[in-house]
Amino acid sequence: MEAATRDFHLLGSTGAVRAGYHVHDWSASPLGPPDRWSPALRNAVSLILESEFPMYLAWGPHLALLYNAAFIPLLDGTHPAALGRPLAQVWPDRWPGLKPLVERALAGHATYGEDVPSPIDRNGKPYNAWFTLAYSPLRDDTGTVRGVLCVTSETTQRVQLERRHAVQLQVVDSLRRMHHPSDIIECSCTLLGKHLELERACYVETDEADGSFEVMHDWARDAGTPLVGRRARLDDFGPQALALLRTGSPLAVRDAMADPRLPARGERYAAAGARAILVVPKVRRGQLVAALVGYSTQPRDWDEETQRLATDIAERSWDALDRVRAEQALRDAVARQTTLLDMNEFRLEVSDLLRRLNDPTQIFAQTGAMLGRFLQASRVLYGDYDADKQLVTFHSNYTDGIVAELNGTFPAALFGVANFASLAQGTWVSSDLQRDPRTSGPDLWPNYAALQIRSAVVVPLNRNGALTTCLFINDNLPRVWSADIVRLIEDVAERAWSAVERVRAEDALRLADRRKDEFLAMLAHELRNPLAPISAAAQLLNMGPPDGGRVERTSAIIARQVAHMTGLIDDLLDVSRVTRGLVVLAREEVDLRRVIGDAVEQVRPLIEARRHQLALHLSTEPAIVQGDPKRLVQVIANLLNNAAKYTQEDGRLSVWMGITPEQVLVSISDNGIGISAELLPTVFDLFSQAERTPDRSQGGLGLGLALVKSLVELHGGMVTVASEGRNQGSEFTLRLPRLHGAGAPSGAASVPGTQAPGAAKSLSLMLVDDNVDAAMTLGLLLESGGHDVTVMHNPAQALEQAAQGHYDAFLLDIGLPGMNGYELARRLRTLPGCRDATLVAITGYGQQSDQASATYAGFDSYFVKPVDPAGLFALLDRVAVTPRLAGC
């Protein structure tokens, strides 16, 4: 056999060829040895052996294979065993394709097969080759067709070139019709995946600065987990592979599990379905900027033709991307030059329009329409955003007539809660929502598609750190929004919102001015009301001989009216302190059940006087909050007092308290006159008050609810109001943060009972007040309590008198002429016998800063006019029973 093989390769002469055929072992061949062949077969064999073209013949009923030396490289290593064997046995996998050609030749008709694919081994590697096969009938000496002759011509290079040209034409034809980068990227990945028969192809962009890359588009033959938006480190490729890519050469990985250039990463790639990898890089100015990447799930040899085809697709894609981006840059430059003047003129038109408009609705509608026409956008609209409820309400629509208007309230989740959250960082821009990872997901993109939104700009209008309103610009086609256009949209949004705020501020100022006038008129009236009975009572006391009953009745009248005036003034001072932030709250653990009980006790006389029914529905569980008990009682009492005043006699009042894990809720409701719809939004504003009943039984200055709101907010809570309208009652609801982990607060400390005036020993007092009437009446009151009172009106004379006499306590007005009460107190403390005397400030100044100044000046106690007699006598009784050093 070795000799036969050697002789067969010695094709220098016909004799050598024949000798080779003669020494071959033909025992297994149906042809038999060559010396028994027919002359026709011998002639045919001589013909193919003399040719330098790859040729073979198939002879006899079994179509035994005979071939020449040029055909041996095409036998995939089966020579010389293939010599003389039936054709169907030599190429069982190719026989179905060859059989029709052979049968036609056996029928006496010459035929051929053009560009027939035939995988072969070349240089020890599998190689896809193509051949043109020309078949001719072979006849014996009688003219009978006994076999076929096949002349083989390899057309691999031409086929590959034509195939490459066809792909190039398809790529060029597909890409030249595209004018957006995202469309080009999608097309490139699809072409790469289909022509290279890949499982997945994707386009990635790299950031050499931070050493990462991101998948921008992903194509997959079968549905799978999308890779768009995935980021990874460039170092994952390994230093050798990365160095190769940075040269611009493709990276071909036959098997990621065995490639040494992917250290410690091969198993991870294989697990992700990337067993074989082909990467075609894009390098610009020495930087790796992008790449087309193909994956196969099984090991694969990426031959030169495959790499060349992938490179062609990639390079034409890069050229198309560069072209589109250059065209866009040119369009942007031209547009910027041609539209800057138009933009400035447009801004002037918007400013002129906004100066003439005084209605927020018209401001939104007309600026939106102007902007939509100028931008030729599909839709422009405003939307109010409710961050607590995650809702957006659209209004003031402009459309181009192609897309529908968008009105109503929608959950923010339909458009992506994260997209609304990102507005805190500024304007949101997308040139193509279908391919934008923020909106392209299956949960969001169908919503945008249904509304015909393909590109958009959203400008947030943030006020006081919160998103309140947005300006939405929509287009039904992909659109690149230039920086100048975005700035113009932002400018219009800010101008429109500023105009709306100006209009609202002017309306609020006019309303506040009107309310101020109404309040001042009401204040004058309310202050005159108690003055009339006080004046009448004073005149009654001067008429006729003293009458004990008359004195008692007139004194009661005066006391009630003074208490009413004191309440009015206290309300004014409270509101002033709260609105200026001068109130300092005590911070204690407070059970709101006790607070409600104290408030009910305060308001009970009014409730009983108007014969109301009061129902209490309180949680049995402790409702602990942190706050100021007195102020919380004031809040509940104010709301109860309002409910009682604004409910007709024999009405029904209700107080309900409930507990949630985070809050304590208190609801105070009534079936009174209710609140009209137009007053509801302003019910907590200063000087706001519902219409009074004809008997004017409610009274007040309209400050109570404003005070309630401010005090509740100082406690970290909120208060709301609801009413069905006039004569439908109202309901006020408080929400205060619940204090967790706190025990029930201890009961209120018992207040020692005060002794009746005069129960302690008589004191020697000096009263200093430049108001003669006020000094005289207070002096008479103190004398009625058994005390010896010296009344002075001049502070200098008071100092002289104090140095000569003995006094247990000094009652000093602060606003004295020539020397204020603070200075007088300091000088009294310097007198040798007065250092330990009790100094009491009696003044009309009631601010906390005034009290602090009094303490600093040396006062022991502080009373605000009009003085509470019981409190003053209780203080004097304590002075009387407390051992003192010698007085003045």
Question: Would you summarize the structure shown here?
Answer:
With 888 residues, the chain is α+β, with helices and mostly antiparallel strands.
Structural features:
888 residues, alpha+beta, six-stranded antiparallel β-sheet, 23 helices, rod-shaped, disordered N terminus
Descriptive notes:
Helices cover 42% and strands 22% of the residues. The chain is α+β, with helices and mostly antiparallel strands and 888 residues long. The strands form six sheets. The protein has a six-stranded antiparallel β-sheet with strand order 8-7-6-11-10-9. Mean pLDDT is 81; it is low at 1-19, 690-699 and 746-759.
Largest sheet features: 6 strands, antiparallel
Task: Give the CA-CA distance, first to last residue.
Answer: 148 Å
| Uncertain ranges | 1-19, 690-699, 746-759
Number of strands: 29
Strand order of the largest sheet: 8-7-6-11-10-9
Task: Look at the helices and sheets and give the structural class.
Answer: alpha+beta
Shape: rod-shaped
